[in-house]
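#onboarding

Welcome to the new folks! Below is a worked example of what a typical request in this channel looks like: someone posts a single protein sequence, and someone else replies with the predicted structure as tokens. Don't worry about understanding the tokens yet, we'll cover that in week two.

Example request:
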Amino acid sequence: MPARDVYHDHVKQALVKDGWEVTDDPLRLEWDDTPLYIDLGAEQLLIAEKGLEKIAVEVKSFLSKSEIEDLKNALGQFVLYRAALQENEPERKLYLAVRETTYLNLFTAPKTKALCRQEQIHLLVFNPQTEEIVAWID
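Example response:
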């Protein structure tokens, strides 16, 4: 099983505070015969719609010396995991969890913002100190 991201438990707690039930830690999928592990799987009962919303969350810290290298790795992993989810659990929506600081410094930049829109990257922005979700960005 892969190592957990530095902010794994912060995001997990933020999801719980936001009313989500964490169902998988990690969420195991198959890619051909190779197992893949997305950090978290969660679901939430939606009273207004009387349905169940399911998500998968990949947590990324962006702590290396190069944010662009981190971005390249995170987006590549996101695309692979999204494809695996479409085959294994198509009802789940995949989110990339990033710290609020990372979001403000990197993901609001015009080219990164355009890339995320083009590649349909869904973001979960969290504050690690308060362990709260700051924004859901589709």
